From TrEMBL:
Membrane topology, as annotated: Multi-pass membrane protein
Cellular component terms per the entry's GO annotation: plasma membrane
Organism: Pseudomonas marincola
Lineage: Bacteria, Pseudomonadati, Pseudomonadota, Gammaproteobacteria, Pseudomonadales
UniProt-recorded name of the protein: RND transporter
All copies of domain SSD, residue ranges: 270-392
Matches recorded under Pfam families: MMPL
Length: 825
């Protein structure tokens, strides 16, 4: 065999450079220009990568078009603090809050937090803010004032007065813990800082951690919860993704080299996949996008997809060079054979991402667009740039020979490798029947299990983080000490202006208040109606028999006038009913939403409307509803698009069925796995199944394209499948296992949703590979042979290379996915 690295003019003398498609001629006849354009693009976009930002936006992570969220946004200014807010619990480890040193620390911390950029200072609340007040009925009538006395001096008398004020403030269980050993600084946040920039949660989280470190001591402990802190912790944890990315690159590089034994081709495949990531990241700031805790994982997926396609191109060129072709001819022939299959596979990947656009949550739509950008650049870097580069550097002679080891062994009369013989069993009736029956049983079992798949969070705290994370420990502390989690569900009650205190309206609010308190998962409630009941008891010398909502409008008006503005707005046209929940699990939110919806349907009139929903739990309930609606719709669209693309590529509905059914089985089993692992369908996990379908179809496309071409040439199913295994099947197996190992390393991540995605993606990579190698040929046994036998007589002439008939070993790869001739003429 001639050296693949020496350019001999005689090798190319009979090759017509005008052969091939217009695209092939444009690329390979002007290779130096292709490389120059790619080099300039890489340099320019490489500089742009330094401008990529990692942040998140509260409004981008909620379904702003959902009616619940639309109601919240319409009244956002009147409901300040019911969306994005922090709860900072400051605990005295050596006593209660009635301690001068503790209160001094609390004041200093409160003052510093008050000055942080992005804090909605008008609605911030702690024991030291003037808005925190006590109210009592005395012999002289109503009396009240700030909880911290105006004359507070830290002495015993002031501390005793503070204790009495707290008891009369109704803040125990809200701002003050039940055991009165800690108190909360409640910090509503604005979407933008005073300089007009979006609030940077990573910076805010670092500022909060600096304050925690500064004021924590042997006697003071600080616990912080809230959306902003959770996102800040996510971003801090996700910065470690660089480490996982490096590990994945090392794993794939080592495994690819083990397979090829060729340094130059291995490095080229890795290089082109990394170039795709650079192009993707460089385009983001140009297009005005930034990475967030969900889309930050996309560059790895782009790298993984690039490795898969790049390995296929490298393998094809390696085999052709091993058969004696010059590296330029091998690159062009491989381009002819696999460009259409690769393009279709990438389009399926793009569809898997693009269908996420139907989910009306901007963070998911941004993820879809960022991923689509990555898939688009792969068309240039891995389908075009890689073959052009390999046409220059070729592969080592040893690697080229090793790539044909199985083929040469068969030609010399040796028995096929035991593993190939095992896979070939699934092209025979007995094993094909067993495989199809087992797959059907798995599908039925998986579907039955997947019926128990839940929407939303299934764990308390922040399920995106580990149960033992600092954030979840802080959340558990607040839940234990304050009798409720930070999950607040708010019902908005719209009334005519000035009518919020009307008895008939308050009576309906009171009825809903009482009903919600009896629901499982609701710890306590608060409303203007409940305040009226409590105030009437106070006016009646504490007699519990007066704990009633009186039909006395003058009394109601008087109580409303002195009520906190958080219970109603300035012009008395909006009431707010608060439900403090024990958790934000999907079942809790669904039960609450269904009850309020039913109550609203029965009680809404022209003058009063009960509207859902505000508060962190209300927003999450709306998100769950959107996710549930999008879950099946998304799968329908992604499968419809994949089926259409397969039909266009294969021109055969039978081949399409063989390619798609393994994907469907994997999707069903993945949902069953989510049930077993107690993972709900939510914003973090919703994209995984769609991505698994889009990426997983790559394997079926590469195997079916080669197999179908050989079948249409008149070969048996066994021969066709074996040839597909030798050309693309080996690489399908290689990339499936390698990429599964790469994402499986995510299990070690401190971010739980990244670990969950790693498990699910690894599962789908493996099962899609197994489906393409086992179930696909089994289905082909029942669907394809009878059809292709009719087409065998009409098959195009055998291809030729340089005007000479090809050997059998050459025809095993010199076929196009649709049985088109790969002759250079």
């Amino acid at each position: 065999m001639k050296s693949s690295n020496s350019f001999n003019a005689s090798d190319m003398a009979d090759f017509d450079p005008r052969s091939g498609s217009v695209l092939e001629r444009a690329l390979f006849n002007h290779r130096i220009w292709v490389l120059l354009v790619c080099l300039i693009t890489t340099v320019v976009l490489g500089f742009q990568t330094s401008r990529v930002e990692l942040n998140a936006s509260f409004e981008k992570m909620i379904p702003t078009q959902h009616p619940y969220i639309a109601n919240y946004l319409d009244h956002q200014r009147e409901l300040s603090g019911l969306g994005n807010a922090l709860r900072i619990a400051v605990a005295n480890k050596k006593g209660d809050i009635y301690d001068a040193d503790y209160l001094k620390t609390l004041q200093q911390l409160s003052d510093q937090i008050y000055l942080l950029p992005g804090v909605d200072r008008a609605y911030m609340k702690s024991l030291w803010t003037p808005a925190t007040r006590w109210v009592a009925v005395t012999e002289e009538g109503l009396d009240g004032g700030p909880v911290i006395p105006d004359e507070y001096d830290g002495k015993a008398q002031s501390l005793a007065q503070l204790r009495r004020n707290v008891q009369q403030s109704n803040e125990i269980g809200q701002l003050v813990a039940f055991d009165q050993r800690s108190s909360i600084i409640y910090v509503p946040l604005l979407a933008k800082t005073p300089d007009g920039k979006s609030l940077d949660y990573s910076v805010l989280s670092e500022q909060l951690e600096a304050l925690r470190a500064k004021y924590s001591s042997d006697s003071i402990d600080i616990h912080i919860t809230g959306f902003a802190k959770k996102v800040g912790d996510l971003i801090a944890g996700l910065k470690q993704i660089v480490l996982f990315f490096i590990v994945a690159i090392l794993i794939t590089t080592v495994v690819l080299y083990w397979y090829t034994r060729c340094v130059r081709s291995t490095l080229l495949v890795v290089f082109c996949s990394l170039v795709a990531v650079v192009w993707q990241l460089g385009l983001l700031p140009i297009l005005g996008y930034q990475l967030d805790p969900y889309s930050v994982l996309v560059p790895f997926l782009v790298f993984a997809i690039g490795m898969s396609h790049g390995a296929q191109k490298m393998n094809g060129i390696m085999q052709d060079i091993g058969r004696g072709m010059h590296r330029v001819v091998a690159a062009r022939f491989t381009f002819r054979r696999l460009f259409l299959a690769g393009l279709t596979a990438l389009l399926c990947d793009a569809v898997g991402f693009a269908v996420l656009m139907i989910i009306k949550i901007q963070v998911i739509q941004d993820l879809a667009l960022i991923a689509s950008i990555g898939v688009a650049v792969l068309i240039f870097t891995n389908l075009i740039l890689l073959p052009v580069l390999l046409s220059y550097v070729g592969v080592s002679p040893r690697a080229a020979q090793l790539s044909l080891k199985s083929e040469q062994a068969e030609q010399s009369g040796q028995q096929r490798h035991a593993f190939w013989r095992f896979l070939d069993l699934f092209t025979q009736r007995r094993w094909a029947s067993i495989c199809v029956a087992a797959s059907l049983a798995l599908a039925v079992f998986g579907f039955m299990v997947s019926e128990h798949l839940s929407i939303g969070d299934l764990d308390a705290g922040a399920p995106e983080l580990r149960p033992d994370s600092r954030y979840n420990r802080d959340d558990a502390f607040l839940t234990e000490k304050y009798g409720a989690s930070s999950d607040l569900f708010a019902v908005m009650v719209k009334t005519p202006a000035g009518a919020c205190a009307r008895y008939d309206i308050l009576n309906k609010v009171d009825n809903l208040d009482w009903q919600l308190r009896s629901l499982p998962g609701v710890d306590s409630t608060n409303s203007l109606a409940l305040l009226n009941r409590r105030m009437l008891v106070g006016f009646s010398e504490g007699s519990a028999k007066w704990y009633e909502l009186q039909n006395n409008q003058a009394m109601l008006n008087m109580i409303t006038a002195s009520a906190p503005r958080g219970l109603y707005n300035e012009n008395c046209s909006l009431l707010t009913l608060y439900a403090y929940l024990t958790d934000h699990k999907a079942a809790t939110l669904t039960r609450l939403v269904d009850h309020v919806e039913a109550f609203a349907a029965a009680n809404n009139t022209d003058e009063v409307q009960f509207m859902l929903a505000a508060g962190s739990a209300g927003i999450e309930a709306a998100t769950n509803i959107v996710v549930k609606q999008a879950n099946r719709e998304m799968l329908i669209w992604v499968y419809a698009a994949v089926i259409l693309l397969c039909l266009v590529t294969f021109r055969s509905w039978r081949a399409t069925v063989c390619a798609v059914i393994p994907l469907m089985l994997t999707s069903i089993l993945c949902e069953a796995l989510m049930v077993w692992l107690n993972i709900g369908v939510k914003v973090a996990t919703l994209p995984v199944i769609a991505l698994g379908v889009g990426i997983g179809v790559d394997y079926a496309l590469y195997v079916m394209s080669i197999m179908l071409a050989h079948l249409r040439r008149g070969e048996s199913l066994s021969e066709s499948y074996y040839n597909a295994l030798l050309s693309t099947g080996k690489v399908v197996m290689l990339t499936g296992v390698t990429l599964a190992i790469g994402v499986a390393t995510w299990i070690l991540s401190p971010i739980k949703f990244q670990a969950d995605m790693g498990v699910l993606l690894a599962f789908m990579f493996i099962w899609n590979m197994v489906g393409a190698l086992i179930l696909l040929p089994a289905l082909a046994y029942f669907l394809l042979p009878s059809k292709v036998s009719e087409q065998a007589a009409n098959t195009a002439d055998k291809p030729s290379v340089n005007g000479q008939p090809t050997t059998k070993s050459q025809t095993t790869v010199d076929v196009a996915p649709l049985a088109r001739s790969v002759s250079p003429t």
